[in-house]
């Protein structure tokens, strides 16, 4: 079981908490009907993400064997056979689909069709990514970034709640920043040995766009905070800037740039994110 959990990459489920962006920033986190819906959405989307990770591992099994870290993954190491992985994919797909359907039975505003479109759309895009698109420069980064924004849209559509376009743009900009940081550090660590698309990139190109999207993230978040017209939200900009500066410091160090690994392996970054979450909780729900 431990090996299958590793195959599912459970620690990467942390990215799926973006599903809660709409319910949190709209002030509806205490609406337990909406919250229950989003929790089920989180489980469903996470299982679908595991399918993507497994398919990607199957496609990259030979290259992963040469990677200093990825060689220890269940498929690359041979602990789990490819045939068993395909069987597991079918189980995960059925389970994710059933769980995505459940909120339709008790939440009147649940957008069943749109949630399935987003859920299966995410799966399809990433299957194409694993098979071909990850080898196409720029397109590979776009797909990584789009995956993050789909999570936000999925969570909002499921409960019928919209959030500010500035917040969508903030998430999208940071998604590009995180994806570029991952590619930049992969390039610096292994060149094109572990990923074919890296032969099309160079350090200056990736650094230039890293700086652009870091700047856009701060600008878009600041525009959202200003649009709400609250001095308390304006103050949150300082915390966001600190988080981004710390994140940048970490990926400029000895890191492969994976967003999840960057966060969970840096105590200062974890603490600053918790401070932001606590501060926003007070601002949005207590003031």
Question: How would you characterize the overall build of this protein?
Answer:
With 287 residues, the chain is mainly α. It folds into 2 domains: 1-163, Tetracycline Repressor, domain 2 (Orthogonal Bundle), CATH 1.10.357; 164-287. Helices cover 72% and strands 0% of the residues. The protein contains 13 helices and no strands. It has helices at 2-8, 21-25, 32-59, 61-64, 74-77, 82-101, 112-131, 139-159, 165-190, 203-228, 231-251, 259-264, 267-285. The longest helix has 28 residues, at 32-59. The radius of gyration is 19 Å and the shape is globular.
Question: What is the gist of this entry?
Answer:
This protein is mostly helical and about 290 residues long. Helix content is about 70%, strand content about 0%.
Overall number of strands = 0
List low-pLDDT spans. none
CATH class of the largest domain reads Mainly Alpha
**Helical/strand content category:** mainly alpha
What gross morphology would you assign?
globular
Instruction: Give the count of structural domains.
Output: 2
The biggest beta sheet, please?
Answer: none
Beta-strand percent range:
under 5%
